[in-house]
Amino acid sequence: MRAGAGFDADPPGDWQGKVRGNYDQHKLPANAIHTARPRTPTGVRQMKRQTSRRNFLAEMAAGAVVLPPALSLSGRSPESGPPPLPSGPSAPRDESWWELIRSQFSFTDERVPMNAANLCPSPRSVAARVEELTRDIDRDCSFNNRAKFRTLTEESRAAVAGQLGVSPDEIAIVRNTSESNNTINNGVPLSPGDEVVLWDQNHPTNNVAWDVRAARFGITVKRVSVPRHPASARELIDPFVAALTDRTRVLSLTHVSNVSGIRLPVRELVEAARPRGIHVHLDGAQSWGALDVNLRELGCDSYSASAHKWYMGPKEAGLLYVRESRIPEIWPNIVAPGWGNDADPDVEGARKFESLGQRDDACLAAVGTTADFHDAIGGPATEARVSELATMLKQGLAELGMTLVTPMDPALSGGVCIIEVPGDRGTALRRLYEEHGIAGAGTGGLRLCPHVYNTREHIDRAVAGVKALRDVILG
Ligand SMILES: Cc1ncc(COP(=O)(O)O)c(C=O)c1O
What we know:
The structure is a single chain. By secondary structure, this protein is of the alpha/beta class. Helix 5 (124-139) packs antiparallel against helix 13 (361-377), helix 7 packs parallel to helix 13 and helix 14 packs parallel to helix 16. Helices cover 39% and strands 10% of the residues. Pyridoxal-5'-phosphate (PLP) binds next to helix 8.
């Protein structure tokens, strides 16, 4: 039974020939997978010209674009006209710039998202791209029409790879961090007696998932704890280094914890592990799109993330980076059409990890639109803004007498901000949302995660809300 990629409707008979024939239609030209920005067919170029915002924000930043009311990106009201624009290419990243970024999102100020660690809204350009391409498929779902999605997916891959400082061949666009973590968990070759060292704060998909593998295959899982309130990077490095032995094969980490907001000093941990041949896997669910991540500089062997979190991309798109030299040894979780007809994948590099059957092509293409949005802001500016808002929030909460779970030091944290809640967490969260319009989470305490679409006024409101709910939070 062949499922996925449009082959499940094939009648019985010469299915192998049909599968190869159909699949070949979708194959890229041999050179396409190595080019940073593959050639775009005319039809795609026309569609992109109509609606893609590849240069849109850059032009907007240069003051060259004034939005007609019909295309207004303002989150408040389309009738209110275009938002004010910065005056030139050197426009400072001041509050009016960030207001402009906020206006690219459709949420209203009555219901402010501050839970980027879980799910982010997408800018209108991304939502529009998903909608436009989905409609395009529904209008004509032939292989002929869908052939262009190979190119668009390659554009997404190249854009993401460029931002992360790696090769497109090292990037798989999968469905989410959970899937990426499990690909590493199931795919790294391990024998009975081999050790995997984990951070005990890892997400279940990078934590209990290793216990499941241990139960099946007899590996050993060692968990490392760090001080609850680390005062320096050294306090985060030493416990891991002390846990490594000659049997350690994998060091599986999280860049920024979703349950404490602690950011691990990854480069130093990689420096300790790599000379011993240890595979360092990094869960980047809380760093991709929030921090200015360069995977070559970090030096990890693999990295997982979700586009629908801080990257603000389409829902159910994710990332798996695997260092080129590691790709051949890692087994895929799923083998589907597109792989080939023998044990060696036909696809190049990390693409073997995204052979998952029929995909949502519109979603994969819209990852590239999201990359454009990030390029318009810039990785360093994004990280600086996230850090600025997170610091403002943490300082405001600390001044109220709240106990921070997350370090105040930006070097030891990211955008995830958590306070302890000895009182009634559920009521605090509900009332923060209903009475103050701030949507947070109850993970690790009271968790608030501001992003570039949040304003300083949103932070003030969150702090005022916590102040009003002080008795509920402190119990
Ligand atoms: C650190 C970490 N890893 C993995 C995940 C899973 O992400 P997803 O549900 O997008 O697969 C999360 C979700 O919050 C997370 O915080």
